[in-house]
Each structure stands twice: as structure tokens, then as C-alpha cells.
Design brief:
By secondary structure, the chain is an alpha+beta fold. The protein has an eight-stranded antiparallel sheet with strand order 10-11-9-12-13-14-8-15. A hairpin with a 5-residue loop joins strand 2 and strand 3. The N terminus is likely disordered.
């Protein structure tokens, strides 16, 4: 980054940061695998598993935890459930993140048409990546992620992925208070809903027909997950697990 000092590798590729120059002025927001020791967290960094103090010190911050509440072969039912969950949330700052494993040039072209600035990296032993400005079609299969997109991008993304395993994660401000389980308004770190298609896990490792809806919460507020499921007439149907990012 222009004007920044040496790069401090941050172990997570999902840290959104505002980077300051050596003179203390902030540069534009970036989404990079690392950041300079002069970095400060912006609003997006609250969701990652790592944080950087201004000194460049790397400290651990908890990821959200997610629990499935619906598995269905009907994508429209999954999207309807997501819409109902968003209907009870504080949607200030609503945006969407995408994650997909791509094995074919057809899916790759379609997804890149929707997310032309997405990050990607080769899976397996290959070293290709968007950071190196490689041609992704030469490194299939790849993992591709898009960050901070408008909600209107969801439909074209789901059409573009075809049969590729993928997740759509809605990122918003907060869950409402849940007085029945003794919880106040939820913080931003656990404020997500994820729709997983053609896989039944957030890491996209277990192939499945249909889709799964996950609600995210803070680990210390695990009781909120079944409460959220109940608000839309459902129940949790699997374990609470740490989200990958």
C-alpha cells in the first residue's frame, strides 16, 4: 500500500482495514491478506478472527458461531427463511459476502461477470491467486470470495454458480433483544445469516442437494440461535460451530 511501512502478515485473508501512512494519514479501505503496522480497524474488521492494533500487534478476536436451522431442496424456501430472519434484524449497514468453490470455466466466467473484483486462490498444491494477477482459468479448481456487495447481487450470484458449492452471507448491524433467554440486543460480531447451496457446511467441503440456512451468534450468546429459529417457526437442526470467517 502506498506510503505504508513493511507489511505485517495477518494470518486471515478476511481482515478489512483502514491503513495509515507513515505520516499518520489514513489511506483507502483495503481487503488484503496483510496490512501495515500503522493499520487501524474499520467497521468491517469486527467480523474477522484477527485484529491489528496501531502498533501492528496481532490479537485474537472471536469469530461468530453458526447453527443450521433449515435444510431444504427448495432454494426459494431457503431465501424466504433468510428474508424472514432479516425482517427481525437491525439492517443498518446491510451488505453481502460470497464464497464459492469453482471447478469449471463456465461457472468461473459467470461468477466473474457478477463479481469482477473478487479475490480468488487456487486449491490444492497450486499457487495461483488474484493477488498475483494470475489467470484463474489456468488454476481450477479455485476458491473465490466477494466482499461487501449490495444485496441485489444475491440473485445473479446464485444463478452464476450453477452447481458449484457456495455461500451467501448477509452482514448487518445487530439481532434484536431476546428477553426470553436473557439476552439484550446482539452485537455486530454475531450479526449474520448464511445461505449455503450445494453443500451442507460453511467450509463447502460436504456436498449436498439443496441449501442450508445458518444463523450466526456470538459464542457466549449461544442461546440466541434457537431463539432466532423459533422466531421464524423453526428449530436448530445441528451443532453450533465456529464460522470460517
Amino acid at each position: 500500500m502506498r506510503g505504508s511501512s513493511a507489511v505485517c502478515k495477518a494470518a486471515r485473508s478476511s481482515a478489512w482495514l483502514i491503513c495509515t501512512t507513515s505520516g499518520g494519514r489514513s489511506s483507502s479501505k483495503s481487503h488484503l491478506p496483510g496490512a501495515s503496522p500503522g493499520c487501524q480497524l474499520n467497521q468491517r474488521a469486527r467480523h474477522t478472527g484477527w485484529a491489528l492494533h496501531c502498533t501492528g500487534t496481532l490479537v485474537v478476536v472471536s469469530n461468530s458461531y453458526a447453527q443450521p436451522i433449515l435444510r431444504t431442496a427448495d432454494l426459494s424456501e431457503g431465501l424466504c427463511t433468510v428474508e424472514r430472519l432479516l425482517g427481525i434484524a437491525d439492517l443498518e449497514g446491510l451488505e453481502v459476502d460470497f464464497d464459492v468453490r469453482i471447478s469449471s470455466t463456465r461457472s468461473l466466467s459467470a461468477v466473474l461477470a457478477v463479481l469482477p473484483d473478487a479475490q480468488w486462490w487456487a486449491e490444492g498444491d497450486s499457487s495461483g491467486s488474484s493477488e498475483r494477477r494470475d489467470d484463474p482459468s489456468a488454476f481450477l479448481p479455485i476458491r473465490l470470495r466477494g466482499w461487501g456487495e449490495a444485496p441485489e447481487t444475491v440473485k445473479p450470484f446464485l444463478e452464476a454458480v450453477g452447481e458449484s458449492p457456495a455461500t451467501v452471507r448477509w452482514d448487518f448491524n445487530a439481532w434484536p433483544e431476546a428477553p426470553e433467554v436473557g439476552l439484550g440486543v446482539g452485537g455486530t460480531r454475531g450479526a449474520f445469516v448464511t445461505l449455503c447451496v450445494h453443500a451442507c457446511d460453511l467450509d463447502l467441503e460436504e456436498s449436498a442437494v439443496g441449501c442450508t440456512v445458518f444463523v450466526h451468534v456470538k459464542q457466549v450468546e449461544a442461546e440466541r440461535a434457537p431463539w432466532l429459529a423459533a422466531q421464524v417457526g423453526l428449530r436448530v437442526i445441528g451443532d453450533l460451530v465456529m464460522a470460517p470467517y
